[in-house]
Amino acid sequence: MASLAEQLTEARTAYHRLQLGELAVEFKDGNGEHVVYNRASLPRLAAYINELERQAMGGNRPSTVHFQTSKGLN
Predict the structure, then answer these.
(1) 59, pLDDT greater than 70
(2) Rounded mean pLDDT of the chain?
(3) Which of 37, 25, 39, 31 has the alpha carbon at shortest distance from 2?
(4) 45-54 long-range contacts, Cβ below 8 Å, gap at least 24?
(5) How far is CA 22 from CA 13, 38, 68, in A?
(6) How far is residue 42's CA from residue 54's CA, in Å, rounded to a whole number?
(7) Which of 14, 63, 68, 72 has a beta carbon 3.0–4.6 Å from 25's, enabling a disulfide?
(8) 0.85 cut: is pTM over it?
């Protein structure tokens, strides 16, 4: 199984190749499955890259975000 850094490099390379006009790229994801991306799936590939970058930085995404608003009334 490829390391996280290798997965990130492969994903970035795939994204770059698609941006340059290749019709489709294929590589193994973190689960060892072969994944095919095309230009229509660029947003999904970008999300995958963001997830790998988050994992590489060791950050945890909060599962819940709480918003608080006020109209100035106590």
Answers:
(1) no
(2) 83
(3) 31
(4) 45/11, 45/14, 45/15, 45/18, 46/15, 48/11, 49/8, 49/11, 49/12, 49/15, 52/4, 52/7, 52/8, 52/11, 53/8
(5) 12, 8, 46
(6) 18
(7) 14
(8) no
